[in-house]
Design goal:
about 450 residues; mainly beta; about 50% strand
């Protein structure tokens, strides 16, 4: 009965919300995904295996209310995003009804350009390589200006869940409240598009403050002040398609107040590089290509932060390694419980692939991927040889997928992956026994 009343209330709110603009045009779009897995040895253990099997789903619905020419309201929610049969509170299902509004923003034309104000995706620019639009969304004001092939964006983002008035209380005796606890970013991005490609660059300044401004000493509140430069390009030259993106960060991830404790030091961003390039050649119904990915790791033995911008959660180069959905629903990999759901970090990856489309609706693809860490990983502090991982080698993976378009808006994928497990997953225990893993998966995707 409780579920019934909550669903009825939700429908009532939607109707009430739309009544003032009932004369508007309403457009719906979205997707439904259902995917099943059989993971033979998720723990990568030997001789005992640790298999798991499940299926997850998600309904996404986006609604655009076109109130009048130049004025619209956009909403988006995800519903029943969960593992089939999982109880509420498990596998990302935070409520029994599991309906979550993620986007709501108004868009309106100005004499020059347009503004979008409200909750929007915050990490979608250029290529999918660094995008995490499914995961990161929040308050944004976006100005856009379009003139022929040129688009200019100006952005202000505020991280969801932060606050700009006080970082907590009550204050300790004799101290004022901490102030200025906030996280925001400012960006500009010109983009140029032509008939066979596009290019652009995002320049973004981040200002993140943590408990800054205590009246008593020492004040260990800090600010992160750094820049992100993110150029991309994608283009087609006859049968050849190429795309690439580079991300570079510089500044400080921890700038302390002048009266901070001597036990802490400012932390600089240093050598913070990420890069991705891919080339694909079409040869009739067949295609071949190669990709390279580099995300700089952090040298834990120094105070500087050298980690490159993580590859995005929207970017899944393999069925198993660094696959966001698999990691989100099935957890970490190996005895080290290495997360595969936070995007690509500390990695050098090479991939070759090829495929054939024997009929227009069927795409069969085979890929081979090799991955290793860029910097040494450690089981825990202190960062000494005793805690250092015995290897940087993640391993290599072979994936085979077949995707068939049942309808123009409905596709079905069958896939199999085999991981030749690298010694990275031994952690800092060289005697640990690990084994290979294989995955079987199928995925149904409806778009509308």
């Amino acid at each position: 009965m409780r579920k019934f009343w909550i669903i009825l209330l939700t429908l009532g709110l939607i109707v009430a919300f739309t009544m003032p603009v009932c004369a508007a045009d309403v457009k719906f779009s979205g997707s439904y995904i259902a995917q099943g897995y059989y993971d033979s040895n998720r723990a990568l253990t030997d001789p005992e295996k640790s298999s798991l099997s499940n299926a997850w789903q998600r309904l996404r619905l986006q609604t655009v209310f076109q109130v009048q020419e130049g004025l619209s309201l956009t909403t988006r929610f995800d519903a029943f995003e969960k593992v089939w049969g999982a109880a509420a509170g498990l596998s990302g299902d935070t409520t029994a009804e599991n309906i979550k509004f993620e986007h709501i923003y108004v868009t309106f034309a100005l004499p020059i350009g347009a503004l979008a104000v409200g909750y929007q995706a915050q990490t979608a620019f250029g290529l999918a390589f660094a995008d995490s639009a499914d995961f990161y969304f929040g308050p944004r004001i976006k100005y856009s200006f379009v003139s022929g092939p040129l688009t200019i964006l100006a952005l202000w983002d505020k991280s969801d869940g932060t606050k700009s008035y006080s970082s907590g209380g009550p204050a300790p005796a004799g101290q004022n409240y901490y102030v200025d606890s906030d996280s925001e970013g400012y960006a500009v991005a010109p983009i140029y598009t032509w008939d066979k490609g596009s290019t652009g660059v995002l320049v973004k300044y981040y200002l993140i403050t943590t408990a800054s401004g205590a009246s008593a000493l020492p004040d260990n509140g800090s600010k992160s002040k750094f820049w992100l430069i993110d150029p991309f390009v994608k283009a087609t030259f006859g049968p050849v398609y190429v795309e690439g993106e580079v991300l570079y960060k510089f500044g400080k991830t921890a700038a302390y107040e002048s009266d901070h404790s001597a036990a802490v030091e400012d932390q600089k961003l240093k050598n913070s590089w990420s890069a991705y390039v891919m080339a694909n050649v079409t040869l009739g119904p067949a295609y071949v290509g190669a990709a390279a990915i580099y995300v700089n790791g952090d040298d834990k033995t120094t105070n500087d932060n050298e980690a490159g911008q993580a590859g995005g959660m929207d970017f899944n180069p393999c069925l198993m390694l660094f696959n966001y959905d698999l990691g989100r629903w099935n957890g970490g990999m190996g005895p080290t419980n290495t997360s595969m759901s936070g995007g690509i970090t500390n990695a050098m990856i090479g991939q070759i692939f090829g495929g054939i489309k024997p009929i227009p609706k069927l795409d069969i693809k085979l890929s081979y991927t090799y991955a290793k860490a860029n910097e040494d990983a450690y089981a825990a502090a202190p960062y000494t040889d005793a805690n250092k991982y015995v290897s940087k080698n993640y391993g290599s993976e072979v994936d085979l997928t077949a995707t068939y378009k049942i309808y123009d808006n409905l596709s079905y994928m069958l896939g199999a992956g085999y991981l030749f497990t690298g010694d990275y997953f031994k952690g800092n225990v060289d005697s640990r026994q690990i084994d290979n893993d294989y995955l079987l998966t199928n995925k149904l995707v409806l778009t509308f």
